[in-house]
């Protein structure tokens, strides 16, 4: 079975952003510059393709030419129940560093906890977990 993945066009910050996310989530990071790919449509050291593979996996690149960089409105990357509560709390706190908290991670009246943050690179994250759920 395949899973949906997100591919992000960063405004020249792909290397910094993907390295940051590797620090938050762990995993293996591959970065390929435009020069590595034989491309001449942007700066040689710009990221033409980056891939983070781990507990949270996704792709990224630097926006070049007519590419539109990330402008996240009306959507979020949801990490709901994707790890144990301690791990999700740690990820939330790390994403808050330099970002903007939209909704603090907190227990809700229905018994779950969640929160939202726009990280320093402009990604909006929704992180949450159920209390007492199986395996947590």
From TrEMBL:
Top-level taxon in the UniProt lineage: Bacteria
Domain Glyoxalase/fosfomycin resistance/dioxygenase: 14-125
Listed SUPFAM superfamilies: Glyoxalase/Bleomycin resistance protein/Dihydroxybiphenyl dioxygenase
Pfam families in the record: Glyoxalase
UniProt protein name: PhnB protein
Phylogenetic lineage: Bacteria, Bacillati, Actinomycetota, Actinomycetes, Micrococcales
